[in-house]
Write a structure and sequence with these properties.
Strand order of the largest sheet: 6-5-7-9-8
Strand content: 5-15%
Largest sheet: 5 strands, mixed
Number of helices: 23
């Protein structure tokens, strides 16, 4: 074994042995993942704006029977490929229930669980079964994957394809000195790439491609990449993705590529799209929340990673993390979940470092590093817990007893975890941090968030419409409030318009039409009615988290003759 120096002490780099996880360990991880992801899965209304748009477009595929083109009402939705819509349609068709948002979330839940299991597999193959299990556990309980598992969009499913592809690439790299390799790793790699392209375009190849490039640059050897069988792999990818790409190109006369590549992808790369332009360093600053409750351990793991940087498995994880992270930081458009594809590698390195007590040697350096890591970890995870308690008051002017009772429990468990890690009792520390996360997620998603009525404006509006709707076939015109969740909850025929449009809609079908009018559209709405007095049926108030503004909606029926 080689020696390396950290701080003022000298320690030996540990021998790293690959291993396997028993089937029961994978089963336990799957059960734990589902237990962590399910709170709120059925209770939370559709989120704006991406989740509701994805779900509504998938619903319209079921309505129309057109599984090639992607539509949100009459608008072409050509920003993302069709894969996630097909999965949502299949899941909803299989459940065969009423139109509810949770059926469209099934692919995300499945993808998140698969990503956890794939992380455990690659971690076990790299560093042994215990490390793989802990890495999977960290992924199952980190904040950002828990959010994505509950949302009907692309990112949890995409993550599963990325981790599977990275697992195959890691297998080829770590066994590159073997005389021969089979077809299993390249098959998994290219199938994952093809499915990933159908889900969200070439992001899966960005992660694997930058990983391979860095490894080739560090090793100055590229021969092992031939074992990917790139010509056969290209054929596999084309067989998976080309049929729909050809069909949508013909159907849209090339408009799909102009929108998805020319506008959506290049727009994110060259400018901050949808007011999400943020400077480099954003992901580093938000990491303390997104990877919580494990983010403080990532900083503790840095010395161990540096010590073992020449070990193949560590080198692979570094090549997985660093180039992709730099690309994400460089791209102006930034969303909290964009760095999720590198979190499995971070979890694997943290789990491996914990086995060696995070390579702590020099007392002074250890204390400083632990203090900084603990402080940042408490800021991230503690702020999250406190925010859950404060939001009901800020939005509804209401104290939620579940949220208030949950905060001290979560913080005490987290503090206990930190203390146990300080005592080098890592196994107990992982258990305490997992318990803190489980309490926070169960209380937040199953009880606190669904009860904050002011956040779910569309849910309020849908309930108000259902209570007074004069005709089952009647449609609603919404003036000034155009969130996709409203369309999902009220139906595809919902008209998104302005004040005068809502008035005309109301007068065109006096028996059945309803109008939902934002207070800012009220003057235009009444002016278009030419003095006729509409029947006010209900009022909805709340906070639109997309615009950051409070909103009041009035529900009207047609003026009486």
């Amino acid at each position: 074994m080689s020696e390396a120096t950290i701080g003022t002490g000298t320690i030996e780099a540990p021998a790293i042995q690959a291993g396997r996880l028993p089937i029961l360990a994978y089963a336990l991880l799957a059960v734990l993942s589902v237990a962590l992801f399910l709170p709120g899965f059925f209770q939370l209304p559709p989120f704006d704006r991406d989740e509701a748009r994805f779900a509504q477009a998938s619903y319209q595929m079921l309505e129309s029977g057109d599984y090639v083109d992607i539509r949100y009402q009459e608008e072409a939705r050509h920003k993302k490929p069709v894969g996630i819509y097909w999965l949502q349609v299949a899941a909803t068709h299989f459940v065969d229930g009423p139109k509810e948002i949770w059926t469209y979330r099934i692919p995300s839940l499945t993808g998140a669980v698969l990503a956890v299991l794939a992380t455990a597999w690659v971690g076990a193959r790299m560093f042994g079964g215990a490390v793989g299990f802990l890495a999977g556990l960290m992924m199952a309980s980190c904040v950002v994957l828990g959010v994505e598992a509950r949302m009907a969009k692309t990112d949890a499913v995409l993550l599963s394809t990325i981790v599977l592809g990275q697992a195959a690439l890691a297998s080829l790299y770590l066994n590159r000195h073997a005389q021969q390799s089979g077809w299993a790793p390249p098959l998994v790699f290219w199938i994952a790439a093809g499915v990933g392209i159908l889900i969200k375009g070439p992001i899966v190849l960005l992660v694997s491609g930058t990983t391979a490039l860095v490894l080739v640059a560090l090793d100055r050897k590229a021969g092992w990449l031939k074992r990917l069988r790139p010509l056969a792999g290209l054929g596999i990818v084309l067989a998976i993705a080309a049929p729909w790409l050809i069909a949508i190109t013909i159907k849209t006369k090339g408009a799909f590529f102009a929108e998805s590549v020319g506008h959506d992808m290049l727009g994110k790369v060259t400018s901050g799209q949808e007011s999400k332009g943020l400077p480099p360093g954003y992901y580093l600053s938000t990491f303390w929340v997104t990877f919580a409750p494990w983010s403080f351990l990532a900083l503790l793991a840095v010395p161990w990673v540096w010590l073992n940087r020449r070990v193949d498995a560590v080198r692979f994880c570094i090549a997985w993390i660093v180039p992709s992270w730099l690309v994400f930081e460089a791209v102006p458009t930034k969303l909290l979940h964009y760095t999720l594809p590198v979190f499995p590698a971070i979890a694997i390195l943290v789990a491996a470092a914990s086995r060696e007590h995070f390579a702590r040697t020099a007392a002074k350096g250890r204390r400083v590093l632990f203090a900084v890591a603990t402080g940042l970890g408490f800021v991230g995870f503690g702020a999250l817990a406190l925010a859950v308690a404060v939001i009901p008051w800020l939005v509804d002017r209401r104290i939620d007893p579940v949220a208030v009772a949950m905060v001290p429990v979560v913080l005490v468990l987290y503090a206990l975890a930190v203390r146990l890690f300080a005592q080098r009792r890592e196994r107990a520390g992982f258990s305490a941090a997992l318990a803190a996360a489980a309490v926070l997620y169960a209380g937040t998603y199953a009880a606190v968030l669904p009860a904050i009525d002011g956040v779910w404006i569309s849910r309020q509006a849908a309930r108000a419409v259902a209570a007074v709707r004069p005709c089952a076939s009647g449609t609603v015109a919404s003036a000034g409030y155009a969130e996709p969740s409203l369309v999902f909850l009220l139906g595809t025929e919902t008209r998104l318009t302005h004040g005068s449009g809502a008035a005309n809609h109301l007068m065109s079908d006096r028996a059945c039409a309803l109008a939902l009018v934002d207070s800012r559209e009220e003057a235009e709405f009444r002016a278009a009615l030419s003095g006729a007095e509409p029947v006010k049926l209900s009022e909805v108030t709340g906070f639109n988290y997309n615009t950051g503004k409070r909103i009041t909606l009035n529900l009207y029926g047609a003026p009486k003759p």
